[in-house]
Amino acid sequence: MLELFLVSQVSGIGIEMLIWVVGFILLLLSLLFLHKQHKTGKRLEKELLQLGKVKKHNVEYELVLKVMGLCTWHIDVESRTISYDNDYRDGNDCFVPAPGTPLQYLIDAMAEQDRERIQKSLEEICTGQKNDYHEISQVKIAHSDKYYWTEAYATVAKRNPEGQPEIIVGTSMRIDARKEMETALVAARNKAEESDRLKSAFIANMSHEIRTPLNAIIGFTSVLPDLEGEEERKELINLIQENNQKLLRIVDDVINISKIEAGKEELEITSFDLNDMLKSVVDTYIPKVTQDVTISTMFAQSSMSISTDLNRLTEVINHLMSNAVKFTSQGKIILGYNVAANKQLRIWVQDTGKGIAPEHLERVFERFFKVDEYIPGAGLGLSICRTMAYSLGGEVGVDSKLGEGSKFWIEIPL
Questions:
Q1: Residues 224, 234: contact at Cβ < 8 Å?
Q2: pLDDT tens digit string along 212-245?
Q3: Which residue in 142, 147, 84 sits closest to 112, CA to CA?
Q4: How many CB atoms lie within 10 A of CB 220?
Q5: Residue numbers of the domain that contains 100
Q6: What residues contact 114, with CB distance under 8 A and at least 6 apart?
């Protein structure tokens, strides 16, 4: 009995110990499980936080692309293909190839003058000669003969184990507005430089042209009281009056061109007979030519009534006639007009003077340009003709051969 009691006691103690061991193991496993769950929760929390940051980054990334009007693309170097990932550029006419388009298609879409340079730059970054790419070029608009300006940046995003580029990523943006601004700035700079040149030319020409008649007036006036002969006095007075007219004409030319360009002088449209006006101009210049020169008219109609600014048109004709008289020493000067098929009235002055060399034909209407520096004049007359012709809605031109004479004309709408 005692042995059975001892065996039972030992068995009870063993079972209790077993229960405690099992319980401890279960507790330990539970703690390990809870610890693992805690770590998993922390990891998930961190991943969720990172996911939120990625989403936020993507939103900000897209916002930047939209605001800057960019498109993103990548080049697969091995296959030499290009794929566009995002496109937020202005306009619907930009070049957007399908994914995996051969890179040559992009090069072919460039303006002809840009293709060789773009191809060279792309090849250099694809072969690892350069790490970055930056080019400005023109790209053809599909189904059109027009082009738009684009600026592109790119860099190597992935390399193979040998260090050679595998993937190139880049961005492009349209810069038409910037190019237009640059063009406008260049034009403004050129205009400023031209204005400065004209100012210098104006001072140089005016100082000479004004001084010449002034010297004559002052010199002849100082001599006049000492002359006793009536004929000599009369001749000197005529010379003084002639130089007065030259000086007055120079001042009038400067004032007229300044008023027109400043918009201070408005058109005064009136109706008048063109033939009468032209005959009046001819009568003014007949006494001013030598005996070897004749002045005549050639009118398309016996009478013609037109409506325009009489003063400006008369001023233009006077300048053309004065120019013909100045450069014609013998032969004839003809003032005429005809009506072109496009209902434009063309008034012309033809002379048998020295003519104009071909290289000067485009410049004779420039301000202060003089074909012959030895002929008196400020070089403003023909420039004034062009300005006044434009104000009348017309244009001026010249046909001339060196040594054979010239034919200046003004064309205005009827």
A1: no
A2: 778 888 887 887 777 777 888 888 888 888 788 7
A3: 147
A4: 19
A5: 67-174
A6: 135, 137, 138
Q: What does the block give as tokens for 399?
A: 């046909």
| Residue 5: predicted pLDDT | 45
Quote the pLDDT of residue 269. 86
| DSSP conformation letters of 78-144 | TTTEEEEEEE--SSS-S--PPTTEEHHHHHHTB-HHHHHHHHHHHHHHHTTS-SEEEEEEEEEPTTS
Q: Are 400 and 349 in contact (CB under 8 A)?
A: no
| 113 and 134 share one domain | yes
For residue 320, give the CATH number of its domain.
3.30.565.10
Question: In the chain, how many domains are there?
Answer: 3
Q: Which of 89, 91, 84, 83 is nearest to 65 (CA)?
A: 89
Question: Which one, of 216, 258, 266, 212, lies nearest residue 241 by Cα?
Answer: 216
Tokens of 68: 């800057």
Residue 103 belongs to a domain: yes
Q: Look up residue 124 and give its amino acid.
A: E
364 vs 406: CA distance, rounded Å: 12
Rounded Cα distance, 180 and 413, in Å? 33
Helices (H) and strands (E) in the chain, counts: 8, 13
Same domain, 91 and 204: no
- Is residue 24 included in any domain, yes or no? no
Query: Helix, strand or coil for residue 286?
Result: helix
Domain contains 280: yes
The pTM assigned to this predicted structure is 0.49
pLDDT of residue 134: 92
Measured distance CA(106)–CA(173) in Å, rounded:
15
Q: Is 273 helix (H, G, I), strand (E, B) or coil?
A: strand
pLDDT digits (tens, 9 = 90+) for 166-177: 999 988 888 888
Is 355 within a domain? yes
Domain end, chosen from 131, 158, 174, is at 174
Please tell me the distance from the alpha carbon of residue 224 to that of residue 218, in angstroms, as a whole number: 10
The residue behind tokens 């990334």 is 61
With a cut of 70, list the residues of the chain below it in pLDDT: 1-14, 34-35, 37-38, 40-65, 67, 91, 198, 201-209, 256-265, 367-380
The alpha-carbon radius of gyration of the chain (Å, integer) is 45
How many angstroms separate the CA atoms of 68 and 58, rounded?
Answer: 15
Q: Is 128 left (phi over 0), alpha (psi -120 to 50) or beta?
A: left
**What amino acid occupies position 32?**
L
Q: What do you get for the CA distance between the two ends of the chain, in Å? A: 149
